[in-house]
Amino acid sequence: MNLPTLELRHLRYFRRVVDELHFGRAAARLAVSQPTLSVQIRQLEAIVGGRLFERHTRQVALTDAGRALDDAARRILRDVDTALDATRQAQAGQVGVLRVGFGPTLMLSTLGQVVRAYRQRHPGVRIDLRELPTSEQLTALVHGDLDVGFVRGADTDPRLHVELFAKEPLLIALHRDHPAAGAARVPLSSLAQDPWVLFPRAIAPQLHEHVMRLCQQAGFTPNVTQESREVYTTVGLVGAGVGVTIIPETVQRMSWTGVVYKPIPRATVRLSMVRPSGPVRPVVETFLAVARKAAARQ
């Protein structure tokens, strides 16, 4: 004997009859004809091998087998509805894990507002935030260990999609006792003979090249007497009188004691939003939408 395959439809029809204890009312609620409903219930009874309802002229009652199935059917349908809801939320980018990399001090920029807004709009997403140098972010993005990265500049790589997030001014950082500390503007060329503190090129290649280009345009190559891998340490070394440097504008928000900052006219660095090339996961797309909206307001 070839029995019909059990389908969710059978359980949903069964549960509606249980709720109504009346085939006519159950059929109306399901928007099907009463004969169609009766056929589905008979199929379900054939599958389980027994009667599920006692049918009387004006009354329908569950059998013992029906009561046993009712408990299981409630759990199954509840689990299915929960699974479908979770799937829809994932497809809409409402749940999941989002891995975001960012360069030093970038959380002091508009990025901090983006993260806060995203968390408020998508509380079901767990955000894994990782502060990493540019080079480490790009490697992690290529290998699939990050979903989105925020870096100061990014080399062209077909494996990565890069878009502008913002432009950040660059500043000169001097010790407060430096002869030029009291001037409103400090020509970069006036620092040609100063010792410099700078990060290694491998940390952020494009930003390093940009700083070197600015100095070369001012007529000199900086005398780098001290390298530092962390921007916090770089500014600390300036505060200790070790040398001068060029830093992104957000660094001055750290209010470092003993350091003063001077503008460099028209000198900016691109803040790039980087992700792996190819299809974008929904949870990433919802984050990018929040970031783009924040970038457009700047």
Could you explain the architecture of this structure?
The structure is a single chain. The chain is an alpha/beta fold and about 300 residues long. Helices cover about 40% and strands about 25% of the residues. It contains 9 helices and 10 strands. The radius of gyration is 32 Å and the shape is rod-shaped. The chain starts with 7 loop residues before the first helix and ends with a helix. The mean pLDDT is about 90.
Helix and strand topology:
Blueprint: H1 8-20, H2 23-30, H3 34-48, E1 53-55, E2 60-62, H4 64-91, E3 96-102, H5 110-121, E4 125-131, H6 134-142, E5 148-152, E6 160-175, E7 195-198, H7 205-217, E8 223-227, H8 231-239, E9 245-248, E10 259-276, H9 282-296
Parallel strand pairs: 3-4, 3-5, 7-8
Antiparallel strand pairs: 1-2, 5-10, 6-9, 6-10
Helix pairs in contact: 1-2, 1-3, 1-4, 2-3, 5-9
CATH topology of the largest domain: D-Maltodextrin-Binding Protein, domain 2
**CATH architecture classification of the largest domain:** 3-Layer(aba) Sandwich
Which structural class fits the helix and strand makeup?
Answer: alpha/beta
Order of helices and strands: HHHEEHEHEHEEEHEHEEH
